[in-house]
Amino acid sequence: MDHAFHSPDTLTVPVESKKPITAYNLETNSHTFGNVKVTVTKGPMLSSQCQCSSLKTNPEEIAGGDGEQRCVFCRYEPKITLKHLPDMVFVQNRLVVAFFWGKFGIEFNAVDAVNSIRDTPTTDARVASAEVWQAARSESLKTHTTHAVQYDWTYTPHYRGTIFGQGLKVEPTDLQLDMNLLTKKDPVMFFDELQLYGDELDDNGCAELEIKIRIVESYMFILLRFYLRVDHVMVRIQDTRLFLEKDKPYMLREFSVRESSISNLPSNVSPMDASAVWQALQPQQVVVEKITFS
Fold first, then answer.
1. With 0-12 CB in 10 A as exposed, 13-18 as middle and 19+ as buried, what is 124?
2. How far apart are CA 30 and CA 32, in angstroms?
3. Would you call 83 exposed, middle or buried from its count of C-beta atoms within 10 A (0-12, 13-18, 19+)?
4. Tally of domains within the chain
5. Residue 116 has what DSSP assignment?
6. Neighbours of 40 (CB within 10 A)
7. Mind listing the pLDDT tens digit for each residue in 40-81?
């Protein structure tokens, strides 16, 4: 995703636990780092309608755990408050960072991320972009009603993770992530990636929220990235970085925003390449928080 997150494609990464689960049709992947247990859960994309009628012939579609015979759609649809969903929502996908045997921690999940998207009209740059986008594509959008674009059609999340339990204290800090440490090519002990949601904006761009996690001997690093590309109009990158050094009683969470019109991108940078866009743009907003274990 950026130079602080080199891919381990050529590495053999040891995995502590990776197994498919029949209920939900899920796959889990876990690793222990000191007093922290990281669990990655992946499932298929949310269907657009109830699948309960298929439960008898396809029992793996049952969203189990409590004995209720309900499909994934029926189990998760009531939990989602956003009225206009992205085309692809992986409602069962989550990354959980649990401290001290699960007493408290932070997780990144698709449901909370989707629910953080505004479902009402905004008055900031998103509306201006929507007008340009719609005007430039009057033919392809002429079937859309005015109501259809009266929400945050960019699917920009207001989400930096979900804290659970009572053992974490979050406060502003002047501390910074150790980029020298992060860019060192240390042996990777654990790596995984997953998508929370995505949309192609009616074939006029993309809006994607993805997570990557890397654990080496001395630290754990998580990158939650939202990338928005509106063809011929704009790009936006929202990053949340979570950085935990070994044996330290706190972790750092950095939130940053980069944004540009397509016309202002350097000529050698393709808006199709989120990593290249990230490197070409300076952050317009950076917020760093210290999350202490208590």
1. exposed
2. 7
3. exposed
4. 1
5. T
6. 22
7. 999 988 877 776 766 554 555 454 444 456 777 777 777 888
Q: Which of 11-20, 25-34, 116-125 has the weakest average pLDDT?
A: 11-20
pLDDT in tens, 201-234: 888 899 999 999 999 999 999 999 999 999 989 9
Look up residue 107 and give its amino acid. Answer: E
Structural domain for 277, as ranges: 17-293
* 144 vs 293, residue with greater confidence: 293
Q: Which two tokens stand for residue 79?
A: 């939990």
CA distance 191 to 40: 10
Instruction: Assess if residue 9 is contained within a domain.
Output: no
Q: Tell me the torsion sign for CA atoms 39, 40, 43, 49.
A: positive
Angle, CA 257 vertex, CA 252 and CA 258 arms, to 5°: 135
Cβ atoms < 10 Å from Cβ of 170: 13
Q: Is the residue at 4 inside a domain?
A: no
Contact 121, 169 (CB under 8 A): no
Are 190 and 15 in contact, with CB atoms under 8 Å apart?
yes
Q: Tokens standing for 236?
A: 């936006």
Count Cα atoms within 13 angstroms, Cβ side, for 48: 5
Residue at 7 is within a domain: no
Structure tokens at 4: 């602080």
Q: What Cα–Cα distance (Å) separates residue 242 from each residue in 28, 38, 97, 177, 222?
A: 21, 13, 10, 9, 5
Write out the two tokens for 25.
Answer: 């049709």
